[in-house]
Amino acid sequence: MPMSMSVLAILRKGLSRGRWPYLPRRAWSSCSSSNSKITVSEGMPTTDLFSTAFTVWGANTNVGKTLISAGLSSSVISCGDSLSYLKPLQTGFPKDSDSRFVVNKLRHTLPCLSNITPRRILVSHSIQSVSPAVLANSPRSPQQDSFVMSANLQKNLKVRNEFYSSEQFMLERDSSSGEVSWLTKDWNEGMKSFSAFTSTFRASTIWSWFNAVSPHIAAAEEGLSVSEAALLQEIEKSMFAFSKHAGIVDNHDQRWTILETAGGVASPGPDGTLQCDLYRPFRLPSLLVGDGRLGGISSTITAYESLVCRGYDVNAIVLIDHHFGNGDLLQRYIRHKLPVFVLPSIPEDLNDDLIVWFTKTASRFNEIRDHIKVVHKARMMQLQSMQRKGGHYLWWPFTQHSLVPEDQITVIDARVGDNFMIYKNANDSDIIMPQFDACASWWTQGPDLALQLELARQVSYASGRFGHVMLPENVYEPALQCAEFLIESIGKDWASRVYYSDNGSTAVEIAIKMAFRKYLHDHQLVTETDSCKNVLCLKVLALRGSYHGDTLGAQDAQAPSAYTGFLQQPWYEGRGLFLDPPHVFMHNRKWHIDIPKSYIELNKSMTSVVKLSFQARSELFDKGRDSSELAALYKEFIRTNMCACVENCEHLAALIIEPVIHGAGGMTLIDPLFQRILVNECKRKKIPVIFDEVFAGCWRLGVQTCIQHLGCTPDIGCYSKLLTGGVVPLAVTLASSGIFESFKGDSKLLALLHGHSYSGHAIGCQAALTALQWLSDPNTNPNLLSSTMTLAELWDPARVSELSAHPEVQRVIALGTVFALELKASASESGYGSLLSRGIVQALREDQVYTRPLGNVIYFMCGPTTPPATCTKLLDKLSRQLDVFTARKHANANHACG
């Protein structure tokens, strides 16, 4: 049969249905092709909450998803609302078509229903993309249909590539003869006579394949491949087009969107990604169609738990009865957390068109519809109240509440990889939109969506297997395997033991205790009693601007700062020798070293000959600098200060540094040469060395550990934040064998008496092992270079250089996942308390970038798996806001002069 045969016959062809209980594979859906301008996101999708949208999932294939979609469509339309039925993926086309089935059942069911609100229903059915195999195979012979389309109406059929793309018509209620009937009329006629009693129904299919197989097989065999990004964008465009009335006369009705998946919850999409993962960025409320057949309880519970584990909200379970009582048991298992709706069984007669079944179950579908509406309303009320409630009940850390207006509180609905999904009311529209988490949720985050979901599975596994078990004198796989991995990776060739704790500050407290004991042991200062405590003055050697935590001991190991003032910590005593470190930064397209004045005063003749500027960042990490004049100056400065401390009868019992970058101190890059010399000098004097890599470790600075940057090893290392991929708190303190041996003895009082109830908790250890393995494998971390085992350059060097030359920029640094920029500021406008960057930060948040400044320092932090292209977009957005900041500053200056 030629391709130009009656496409009307295909559109109108009824559903061929195999013998129940096996519903046929259907494979035809459609997507709106409106030409209206729609604003969609480039990455993660934005969802308009004006439409009550939900996803129909199936516990398996052939459980009746399309029957449920058809019944709900009729129910929604019958009450006067409008609805879009969206089927993104369809195989077996054109023989099978879910969207065609839904349109046909709606057309034939409505005349049989009572109490229908709308007088007119505008119906459209569209197909967007079909595979070459669909075009190459002629449609089957037409089947007689009870509806005959007029010649005038046939003109509304759109044909593209010798295949139709859409049909449009109007159903109008007619009671002129005394009995209610429905007439089919021209779409344009319906548009002209549009009224408040008109509803709209759209059924659409985005991608269709010929063979009735899984989409990933069909896509590979038929030459129509679909990327995840393309699928998300097309769904987003379609949903926005309907929600924003694109191409539809405005009405005051409630709008609904049904997104029906293909197959089961974990059935693959076109590129092999499981659909439960594929549609996760939308995280639409879920309606799960369970399986009422023998064995259906297991498949339904499995599907339900798969959705919940991924963060979906399942609003209800619906299943078709097969007389096995599956609904009752499912309700008991769910513990009445959500309703289970059971529909009567399907007629066994293959010739039954199911219209009677749809009519008899109409009241049940109305119950489901009303439940979904109630849940949607409750969700909206919760989202709309969260700013107010959050400002009323929560006490945020590091936040001055009086500086946070209620309308600037960010409401986070979910997370998708690098992005928050935030609720926002914009231009009187309630939306869920992506916002890049550019502070990595206080430096803890790194997973993309794939790792995020893997961590969810592993955390669930550990919780189910262990809950919590105590660590002392015990061993269990997560704690053991995590420790083994840490020793063989971060601790390779120097660490032999792993001490678990709960957070970075605690890890530092433990490290200080370890270092002090080792120092006392090595210098033969350990006594059987505590008599030495009154004569020994143990101090740490640390750097100004470093930050090691909020607990008492950790704060005493850092120089005075905004975090240690009397109002913050009345008990603070800086128990250390705090050296001013040399800072490295880029300015005007060159890397510079800023040497403190105290160095110059020490040796004025040498400072005139040292090299203080570099063209490339890599030069700063060159170990050839160890023999430079600057290295000699650093060594002289360090030795002079250490000797002065000893002369005062003070024991420098530990060196603690944040390697390479000081985080909370302002994102300052420390000259790695200085830190390397400092470490070597301390080791020469048998002073234990602590690397506080709570912030910098686990790939944050482009390497697994900053040992790779500095070229030297510690005796003790502290790790947290990115350790678990950011899903649960956990910290570890790695120690050398010498550190461990210094705590051995016959008395328990010589042991390390420090810990917390959840030390080495299985959930955290399982998460850490998963995250570390994932990020350390080039097969799962696309940014990891197997040749060097370092991350690829994430921040475009050309853009970084350009920003360093901006007139309002004092300095810039970029390393690994970190980019930081300091605004030029007067003394009164600089520092942690500065509000200079506030306008830029707020503008970035409006531009879908969430960041928190450190005073006049603005920083971005991506994840080890973040695409470099995403980082480039972040820098471009920052550049634009800097230009706005500059223009506003000049305008204010001119206004002041005028």
TrEMBL record:
InterPro entries: Aminotrans_3, P-loop_NTPase, PyrdxlP-dep_Trfase, PyrdxlP-dep_Trfase_major, PyrdxlP-dep_Trfase_small. It comes from the Eukaryota. One of its GO terms (cellular component) is mitochondrion. The keyword Plastid applies. Keywords: Aminotransferase, Chloroplast, Plastid, Pyridoxal phosphate, Transferase. The keyword Plastid applies. GO terms for biological process: biotin biosynthetic process. GO terms for molecular function: adenosylmethionine-8-amino-7-oxononanoate transaminase activity; dethiobiotin synthase activity; pyridoxal phosphate binding. Coiled coil: none annotated. This is Uncharacterized protein. It comes from Ceratopteris richardii (Triangle waterfern).
